[in-house]
Structures are given as C-alpha cells and as structure tokens.
Amino acid sequence: MPEIRRVAILDDYQGGAHQYADWAALPGSPQLTVFTEYLGGPAEVAAALEPFDVVVAMRERTPFPAGVLDRLPRLRLLVTTGPANASIDLAAAERRGIAVSGTRPAGLTPTAELTWGLIHALARSLPAEDGNLRAGTWQRTVGRDLYGARLGIIGLGGVGSRVAQVGRAFGMDVVAWSAHLDAEHAKALGVTPVGKRELLATSDIVTLHVKLSPRTTGLIGHDELAQMRPDALLINTSRGPVVDEEALLAALAAGKLGGAALDVHTTEPLPADSPWRTAPRTVLTPHLGYVTADTYKVFYRDALDDILAYAAGEPIRELKP
Predict the structure, then answer these.
(1) What CATH number corresponds to the domain at position 306?
(2) Are residues 81 and 25 part of one domain?
(3) Are 51 and 148 found together in one domain?
(4) Nearest to 145 by CA among 181, 177, 170
(5) Is 265 a catalytic residue?
(6) Are 187 and 193 in contact (CB under 8 A)?
(7) What is the number of domains present in the chain?
(8) Active-site annotation holder among 59, 61, 265, 287
(9) 25 and 101 housed in the same domain
(10) Contact 90, 63 (CB under 8 A)
(11) Do both 145 and 272 map to the same domain?
C-alpha cells in the first residue's frame, strides 16, 4: 500500500481545514502542513511543495501546470476540491504517475445567494453607506428599485436558474441568453429567451453565470459593454476572464456603466496594486461564491476520504485527461 509521509493542505485562507474534517484519521500519522496564505507563482509553489507526497488543493486557487508538477518529484496524490479543476494539467500528472482525485461539487445555491447579495449591495450602495454611517454621515445615496426592473441572465444553468427564480420573486422582468439556451426550460421558469444584443441593450442588471471556456473567455468586452445601458449594473460571480477587465475598467472610468459587482477576478488573489481597488462604482468580494460552511464540509471530508482510499490502494473520484 502507498505510504503517506507528508500532506499539504493549500490556500486555507480561513483556517477551516481542521474544523471541517478529522485529519487525525490519516493512516500512519503523517506530517500535516496547512498553508493559510497564497504561495505565489510557479517557482514559489514548487519550492514550498517539493517535500510533500500528497497535496490538497482548494479549487483553482493554486494552478498545477506541467512546469510545477515536473518540479514535485515526491508528489504521488493531488486532491482537488470539486469534481474538476481546469488549472491542473492532468496529462502531465498522468505522465509523472501522479494520481489526481476530486470531490463532490459545491452546491449551486451559495453562488446564487451571493449573486443577490452583490446585486443588493450595488443597487443600494450598501458598502458606501456603511462607510458613511461609520464616518458620521447620514443618507448620501439614492437606491434603485428592483421591482419592475429587467434582469438579464447570461447562462441559465443551475446557478442562473436559481438567480432567475429569486428575480421573479422580486417582481422583476427576467430575460436570459446563452449560446445553447433551452427556451422551454427558460419559459418554465417564467424567463423570456432573448438574443444577446437585446439582453445587453435592455437590461437594468446583467448577471453572468457561464462556465469558463475558450468560447466564454472575453464574452463581455468593449463591444458588449458599449451595447449596455449607461446606467446598467454588471454582476460577475462566474469567472474573471469571462469579462475583459480592461474594457470594464475603461467603461466605469468613462461613466459609461452604472456599476459592477465582481466576486471573481482574472488574477486571484487580487494584487495589492490592482486598479480594481480604486475603481469607481464597484463592489468587490474575494471569490466567496462557494465559500460556505456546508460546502467546506463536503470539500474537506471528501478530500480526506480521497487520501484514505489512495492509502488503501483503491483511489476514488480519479480525474483523467
């Protein structure tokens, strides 16, 4: 049976790994190291993880391209939370004899719920008014009504559908578009299927719920932003590269967009000198869509099960190229 000597848990920013799984169950009492800060670029990752034979990665927070995997000669098992991870070069892992296992997926509701938190925060200027109140001032902004407004959803899958249901409950006019939209599914939710241009041109709020792929990278760029209403709000809880960030920054700086709320960013964690930190009319969160207690219970307990199965010579939930 494979012997496990050293286990690394990466990117545990909240220090929750020990809370959500019983790592004492690992066979042979291996040395367990929990990294609570971002390790950095490929060179820093390879240097920090070189001694470990098992690594537990949190989603795509730390990429594992071939160049990193080639510098981890002791690595035998790489566990990723979630059932897939586009930042792991699975072909390179297979070539090096590194087993890769996933976990069950996060629920769909946490991201949908955060989407609505961001919509409210942006539409009612909640972060700004919180700061104003603490600074001693009172009522400095005028909010926007959701009732009767048009909500445009790009991507009507699991998360988008839940967002749509809440929008309908608020009395919004909900429309949707995606490259492969199921019109009957949309209508069953009380959502009107429309073309992409119409959605962008007529929606008060546009929210993105698509998977990142070559087809969706840069889905919202200069042309799409120019089609949107100058008072429209853009919400992204999908993936950072779905939006051309330079184009969005330019639109906000020029006053051509009402505002943007972003939970995801092209570079994560957001660099200290990122222009987003001073961008106007924005609400920013650090990729919190899936970060809930229930999700972490699934992720960390499944990760532990993956390691136990590997140690028993019977790997589970293996990811293959």
Answers:
(1) 3.40.50.720
(2) yes
(3) no
(4) 170
(5) no
(6) yes
(7) 2
(8) 287
(9) yes
(10) no
(11) yes
C-alpha span between 310 and 304 (Å, rounded): 10
Residues 30 and 74 sit within 8 Å (Cβ to Cβ) = no
Residue 114 shares a structural domain with residue 237:
yes
List the catalytic residue out of 94, 124, 268, 317: 268
Residue whose tokens read 């990760």 = 303
* Cis check: omega of the bond before 269, within 30 degrees of 0: yes
Task: Please tell me which residue in 59, 76, 162, 239 is annotated as part of the active site.
Answer: 239
Tens digits of per-residue pLDDT, 189-236? Answer: 999 999 999 999 999 999 999 999 999 999 999 999 999 999 999 999
Give yes or no: residues 234 and 139 share one domain. yes
Query: Is 209 assigned a catalytic role?
Result: no
Tell whether the torsion through CA atoms of 163, 165, 169 and 170 is positive or negative: positive
- Residue 158, judged by CB atoms within 10 A of its CB (0-12, 13-18, 19+), counts as middle
Residue 94 designated active-site: no
Q: What is the per-residue pLDDT across 269-305, written as a single tens digit (0 to 9) for each?
A: 999 999 999 999 999 999 999 999 999 999 999 999 9
Residue 149, token pair as written in the block: 């407004």
On whether the CB atoms of residues 230 and 257 are closer than 8 A, the answer is yes
**Furthest C-alpha separation in the chain:** 66
Reduced to 3 states, what is the DSSP secondary structure of residue 265?
Answer: coil
Asked if the structure places residue 316 within a domain, the reply is: no
Residues 21 and 91 in one domain: yes
- Could you tell me the residue range of the domain that residue 253 belongs to? 109-284
Instruction: State the Cα–Cα distance between residues 108 and 245, nearest whole angstrom.
Output: 25
